[in-house]
């Protein structure tokens, strides 16, 4: 079943919002996160924020989300992660994983 925005609302999944700070823009963090998410079967999106951080919305299996969040503490080789903040979020039934602007 899909809601008005096209999200599948029949899927029961865990969801988290993650904000990563440090040297995380201009180091392929979004592309790396997308690759990791697809490998783990995590759905959602990742984007750069105006304050220099990277924000992600992650949905799917709890263990897969935890694994991705753990990996995000290090990030791609050129990144220098200072902090990772994780909050519970509402699962929207997103399918796939997109890197936004």
Automatic annotation (TrEMBL):
PANTHER family: ACYLPHOSPHATASE. It comes from the Bacteria. PROSITE patterns: ACYLPHOSPHATASE_1, ACYLPHOSPHATASE_2, ACYLPHOSPHATASE_3. It catalyses: an acyl phosphate + H2O = a carboxylate + phosphate + H(+). Keywords: Hydrolase. Its EC number is 3.6.1.7. Residues 15-101 form the Acylphosphatase-like domain. It comes from Sphingomonas anseongensis. InterPro entries: Acylphosphatase, Acylphosphatase-like_dom, Acylphosphatase-like_dom_sf, Acylphosphatase_CS. It holds the Pfam family Acylphosphatase. The active site is at 30, 48. The keyword Transcription does not apply. Belongs to the acylphosphatase family. This is Acylphosphatase.
């Amino acid at each position: 079943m899909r809601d008005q925005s096209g999200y599948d609302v029949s899927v029961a999944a865990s969801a988290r919002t993650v904000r990563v700070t440090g040297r995380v823009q201009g180091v392929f963090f979004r592309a790396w996160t997308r690759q990791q998410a697809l490998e783990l079967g995590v759905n959602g999106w990742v984007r750069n924020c105006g304050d220099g951080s990277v924000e992600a919305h992650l949905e799917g299996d709890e263990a897969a989300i935890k694994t991705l969040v753990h990996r995000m503490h290090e990030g791609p080789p050129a990144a220098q992660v200072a902090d990772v903040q994780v909050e519970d979020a509402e699962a929207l039934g997103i399918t796939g994983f997109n890197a936004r602007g």
